[in-house]
Amino acid sequence: MRRKICTLLVLMPLLALFDVLQAQQAYICKHDFRKCDAEPKGLNGILHSFYQDYDVRFCHLDLSLQKHTVFVEGSVKTMAVSKKPSLQTLCFELIDTLVIDSVIYQGLPAVFIHAADTACVQLNPPVSLGDTFSFRVYYHGTPATGGFFSGISTAVSTQWGNEVTWTLSQPYHASHWWPCKQDLTDKYDSAWIFITTDTCCRAGSNGLLTAVTPVAPGKHRHEWKTRYPIAYYLISAAVADYQEYVIYAHPQGQDSILIQNYIYDAPGCLSYYKSDLDNTAFYLELFAELFGPYPFASEKYGHCQAHLGGGMEHQTMSTVGAFDFGLNTHELSHMWFGDYVTCATWSDIWLNEGFATYAQYLAAQYLAGQQYADQFIRGVQQYVMSEPGGSVYIPPGQTADVWRIFDGRLSYNKGAAILHAIRGAMHNDSLFFQTLKQFLQQYGDSVAVGTDFKAVAEQVSNMNFTAFFDEWYFGEGYPILDISWSQDADSLIIRVEQSTSTPVTPLFHFDLECMLFRGTGDSLIRLHLDAPVKFFRMKTHVAVDSIKLDPHYWNIYKLNSLNKIHEAEAPISFTLWPNPGSIIHYRLGPGFSGKYRLNICDISGRQVLSEIRYQREGILDLAPLAEGIYFLSIETPGSKAVRRVIRQ
Ligand SMILES: [Zn+2]
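That is the input. Now the predicted structure with zinc ion docked in place:
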């Protein structure tokens, strides 16, 4: 009786906590702890504050899994370090469907409650600041399953007939099969994953298979151990009647790397995929050259086959539905981008998916040829422009929506396209690859946000990417261009008018490459676009026959029109001085005659002057206007020119 009263007293504050939790269902800062309000609310706010209390160091999953069911039972030991002077209550996540049988702390059952997919344990005695402690959770149950992101799934392969059970924890579903701290910013420093299953089966997981131990008649335990830091969602297991197929990669300057594949033990399955599997070695060698050494070299890379569409980049052992060039290069590249460096919040999923999709482009470029790569990136850009809006960055309010995080058009394709645009903007491949390598070195075994990559790119290239990130990463949409060009005696004049697909981003600043084709040979020029209307005039002594825009497909843009204008209707050119000023002179280009309309608009588009004039030279009296930016346009029936004037 006495013991019961004690338990109740201990539970009172925790139960009060969960009352609050049930009342507040606002998932305001779900798992984006860096983005939470100063006083985060609801379940995740409470978890957030508890998650600040300890650092995870190590986990040991010792679970029983079978190929035909998602039933899971066993225990998970967690080692952690207290970040509080006296840590008395520790919380972690585990869905309610899984029943906690006991929590053992210092060799004795501890008091705990388990509700709202969260468990909190009383640590008695409390843990002092900086001290390491451990606890083990015994549990069992059958989680709900279904869908791509469901924590744990089981199925029969329709192609090969094999039963398979596999886990997929990204982004919030590790707690659907094991008790864990789902915090991207706190990687487990190392992990053991022991899976007991029927002797007909193998269990694949992270790190190295250190032993297969018989534990009972008809049962054996696969004992995997990894000594590399690992995010909670990258810990995995897959169970089936697998055969093992092992090859090695030989990246330059590194020891050979084990590539361990668990393929269904079905007639014809291995031979069907063998050449695709063998190619993994070439992909790994290429990426090691482009990105830097394979990050998990002392363990392995590998695949576990499972019945899912696509794949998942589980650290050192991707889980995949099939094998092909695109999928396998994508998942492998995640070892660098996603696993070694992990997005610090789900808002920054670009660092995982945009980069892995761009790695597919790089693999195509270096292994299949430029033509194939061009086709790939053009497809990516077209897909991006199939809708007018959407940002690569996931606003914190949208990260509870799994399909927004993993939006194929935005996180994958637009993410890859803007990385390609950064490469183009640098005008120098060695700077681009140096940026990738330095970013990996700086944030390896840890986490980063999108602007961390921006900072590295700026440091390496000595360029400013603020406008680029505001427009392409945080901003939405794409530029729409209307281009006209003409030639007079010795000059080429190009006029570029830019509108955008959404008012969210009213202007994009970027360099547009143009290939000029002319009799004496082709030449590449670069037009810097930084205003709604831009004129470029350049000396050219040979007639230009035609123009090809963006021949390397660096940029996302829609070309609305590209016209050659005959001399008679050539766009007007004019000079302005002084600008800024209050009395500004202008002079129209040589050869201009006739009447024209002169308009001045303010920055909001309101017209402040509109009149017909005849003289080639004139004065704009801006003195009565407020200081600021205005647009001067000069228009004839055949053409129009716009320039920015600053009233000062
Ligand atoms: Zn991916």
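The pocket of zinc ion is lined by residues 313, 330, 334, 353, 356 (CB under 6 Å).
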